[in-house]
Design brief:
Thiolase-like, Thiolase, 382 residues, nine-stranded mixed β-sheet, Thiolase_C_2, single chain
């Protein structure tokens, strides 16, 4: 069974972003994003019969969210696999729609972690067998992967810094981005070291924010007064939970999730116009671009260097500014979907990639643990 182009995203929206939480709760941001996404789709709340969500605040997030929104879904999925949860929910929702279990799915998330003191709030906790080593969770785990990639393939700190600089160049074109000041390679390299070899500016933002995605069947999507973004393929994979059990620090399960997504979509990496990756740290895009097939293993550092991912570069990556410069409210994956859809709908203003017909959204969860890939296309690609 294939899900290719059987469903389409018809509505996307963020809540207020940045530092907006004082006086608001994570569910308030969920409500903002939901109302805006439904308005974007031209659908009523009563038409939502599938709810997909994850939260680091509410262990029973599906029930809390349904209660807050005032909906009574017939299908609830509150599975949590970290920041990749929402790309995973996309696959689960498409499966349920294709099977006729539901007609319209709402995927939603909200967090006020910046207003809650600026500390990372995550369902991902340190492994007790690793705790005696006093690693800084999760940054030390990503620093391990970065250090190993540098050792094994000659990747440099300068190349990692170029990932952050490219993200900032895109963010400067996005009025909604949290960080829009100019950023240079030297700024990244000279910023405070947090976990060697990653500095503060190699790390994602800590913001408030929420997002919502509305998915429905392809036939229904064509009846709406919107431009659908068709889900062409999706795949997910999990290889480990703790970084100490990761089979190879330089290779992630994106090799499997990407392969499955591309096979379902009938596409190759060279067919993709826009790439939205979960960039919690600058090493992430290097690893994912390799593992998803955009370059060979070990060539990621050279691939991302010298503005290759920035506006005017060889591959548009994280065109909203990513988790490094746009927003990062604890779990970022839903925002990769939102930006991919907007690019295909031609709604991105100064940062719009001309002629974008295909887009990839990739979520990462835990400590490089869970990987989920989705591919979208316009009507003419479908």
């Amino acid at each position: 069974m294939t899900l290719r182009a059987t469903t389409a995203v018809v509505g996307v929206a963020e809540s207020d972003l940045g530092e907006v939480g004082p006086g608001l709760t994570p569910l308030d941001l969920v409500g903002q994003a939901t109302a805006r996404a439904l308005a974007d789709a031209g659908l009523a709340k009563s038409e939502v019969d599938g709810l997909f969500t994850a939260s680091s605040y509410f262990p029973m997030s599906g029930m809390d969210t349904a209660e807050y929104l005032g909906i009574r879904p017939s299908y609830v999925d509150g599975s949590t696999i970290g920041g990749s949860s929402f790309v995973s929910h996309l696959l689960h929702a498409a499966s349920a729609i294709h099977a006729g279990v539901i007609g319209t799915a709402l995927i939603v998330y909200g967090s006020t972690q910046r207003s809650d003191g600026g500390r990372l709030r995550s369902p991902s906790k340190a492994n007790p067998y690793e705790a005696p080593y006093r690693a800084r969770h999760p940054i030390s785990m990503y620093a391990l992967a970065a250090a190993r990639h540098m050792h094994e393939y000659g990747t440099t700190r300068e190349q990692l810094a170029d990932v952050a600089v490219a993200a900032r160049e895109w963010a400067r074109l996005n009025p909604a981005a949290f960080a829009r000041d100019p950023l240079t390679r030297e700024d990244v390299l000279s910023s405070r070291m947090v976990s060697d070899p990653l500095t503060k500016l190699d790390c994602c933002l800590v913001t408030d924010g929420g997002g919502a995605v509305v998915l429905t069947g392809a036939d229904r999507a064509r009846q709406l007064d919107v431009t659908p973004a068709y889900l062409l393929g999706a795949g997910e994979a999990t290889w480990h939970r703790a970084i100490s059990t990761m089979p190879d620090l330089t290779t992630t399960a994106a090799t499997d999730s990407g392969r499955r997504a591309f096979a379902m979509a009938g596409l190759r990496p060279s067919d993709v116009d826009v790439v939205e990756l979960y960039d919690a740290f600058t090493i992430n895009p290097v690893l994912f671009l390799e593992d998803l097939g955009f370059c060979a293993k070990g060539e990621g550092g050279a691939f991302v260097a010298d503005g290759a991912l920035a506006p005017g570069g060889t591959l548009p990556v994280n065109t909203n500014g990513g988790g490094l410069s746009y927003c990062h409210p604890g779990m970022y994956g839903i925002f990769t979907i939102i930006e991919a859809v907007r690019q295909l709908r031609g709604e991105c203003g100064a940062r719009q990639v001309a002629g974008a017909r295909t887009a990839l959204a990739h979520g990462n969860g835990g400590v490089l643990s869970s990987q989920v890939t989705a591919l979208f296309g316009t009507e003419d690609v479908r």
